[in-house]
Write a structure and sequence with these properties.
The protein is mainly alpha-helical. It contains 10 helices and no strands. α1 crosses α2. The longest helix is centred in the C-terminal third of the chain and has 20 residues, at 172-191.
Length: 241
């Protein structure tokens, strides 16, 4: 059977408190757990196509899918409890937390578009003298809508994904999010986030094949149609539900 390990950077316990997670930490935990489940629930003939060895612009979908459970009020009240009293997170606090989910969504998604476009600008070129710094600053100001600082800094040096396997593929984060939003809204919201039949369909059609077949085929089998971006737009507040 496959074995998976999660390596994360969460707060450590102190002399007076156990390791406590902020809500954003819990969402990150669910995200990475999505990758873990993709690995341990996959069954393929060849290891090369096992689990997360899928197309680069689909691999984040299962992890982004699981993040949704960190925003479901019914689920939050099951695992988010006070470490001293054991009482679940108050319903009113959950309501406010969910209501604030899309605060700054426009800026965040413009930032993701900027990173994806910058990534392509330095990889989809035959110019050996491409000015990496100039491209970064130009695209950042044009897309993110923030004027560049006058200080001579290298923002590119903070973009670790370019040296971490996402080079020429960072756009996949947003591309995958379109798929995950469609799967969650079309099946789990409609049929229930704890619906075991839906969960088994997801395991069988999305997780189990890994990269042994095209992701689009897996998506069509699970959704019963080709995916679209409508659920994604609603998820970031651009359309009413």
């Amino acid at each position: 059977f496959p074995v998976a390990a999660m390596v994360a950077n969460f707060p450590k316990p102190t002399a007076s408190k156990p390791a406590l997670l902020k809500h954003s930490d819990a969402v990150t935990l669910l995200h990475e757990l999505g990758h873990v489940l993709h690995s341990i629930c996959s069954t393929t003939k060849w290891a090369r196509f096992h689990g997360t060895a899928t197309e680069g612009d689909f691999v984040e979908s299962p992890s982004q899918m699981l993040e949704n459970w960190g925003w479901e009020p019914s689920e939050l009240q099951k695992f988010a409890v006070h470490y001293k009293t054991g009482k679940p997170i108050p319903a009113e606090l959950v309501k406010r937390l969910v209501a604030a989910k899309n605060e700054g969504a426009g800026l965040f998604n413009l930032r993701q578009v900027f990173f994806g476009m910058f990534d392509m600008s330095i990889h989809h070129t035959e110019d050996p003298n491409v000015d990496v710094k100039k491209n970064f600053l130009k695209l950042r100001q044009e897309i993110s809508r923030f004027e560049n600082d006058s200080n001579d800094t290298w923002g590119t040096s903070t973009f670790g994904h370019m040296m971490g396997g996402y080079d020429a593929g960072y756009y996949g984060y947003m591309w995958s999010l379109v798929f995950s939003a469609d799967m969650f809204e079309s099946r789990f919201i409609k049929e229930g986030v704890e619906n075991t039949t839906t969960g088994m369909d997801y395991r069988r059609e999305i997780l189990l094949p890994g990269g042994s077949r095209d992701a689009m085929i897996s998506l069509e089998h699970f959704l019963g149609r080709k995916p679209n971006n409508k659920a994604f737009l609603r998820s970031i507040g651009l359309e009413s539900r």
